[in-house]
User: Fold this.
Amino acid sequence: YFMSRHSSGESFHLSHPELIRYQSELGEPVKLGEALTLVGHAFADPIDNQTLLQMAIDQGLPHSDIETARRVISTTGFTNRYFSRYPEQELDLENAIDRTATIGAILLKEIMKANGWEDGIDVFIDTSAFLPTSVNQSVLEKAGLNPDHIFKRSYRYACAGAVSAFIDCLSDSSFQDARVVIAALEPLSLVLCRDHFLSPESLTIPSIFGDANTLMAFNPKHFHLETKRVLIQPDGGVIKLQTHYDFKNTPSNPETIPSHY
Assistant:
């Protein structure tokens, strides 16, 4: 496994030794010619439908709701999801964020090696539904890269972050020859709580949402956009969760918003 160093001199696995087991499961990166490379792993335990139902029963799901809950889980269409944290476990947010940044660094080193970019990258974008934007710099530092030499950006568009970042990168003429990596880091089991497991209705949340970490690397010059549009459509917050990023003090400049928004 990679022995890149933290700024403190620690290896990846001194602070999160359990990641060694998951890292050994990493397969070969998926390469679509020279255009695109993908690498990913949940770094979490797989939870099938029967296991999820048993978790709900253990948490206190009423016996009279078991068959309804079984149908609800099946109706979501998901047969597996991945949890790095379970509802009975207390959340150590700082440690969980550091763990996610370490996973990001492991996968970043993997995808750089696959693309022959060991000497570095030019653009690094992280996307997440709820993580603080500080995870961006932390991933780079853990991977042994100098964040000051890399163009950095964070997207917090819920499920649309990675695809929007991809469209934006292809639309930016200054990025055409850049070595771009987009990291979708989503440890969504961190936002689950016991209440989600106590009724068939709320059980849809842990049925659908679990951990996933996927990185994509590409040079925009290999792509041509026939058409592009990113539509922001407020829905009042159909799904709500606690976010840990703070954009309140971020200056807003509408003139910098691309025309395809």
User: Anything to note?
Assistant: The chain is about 30% helix and 15% strand.
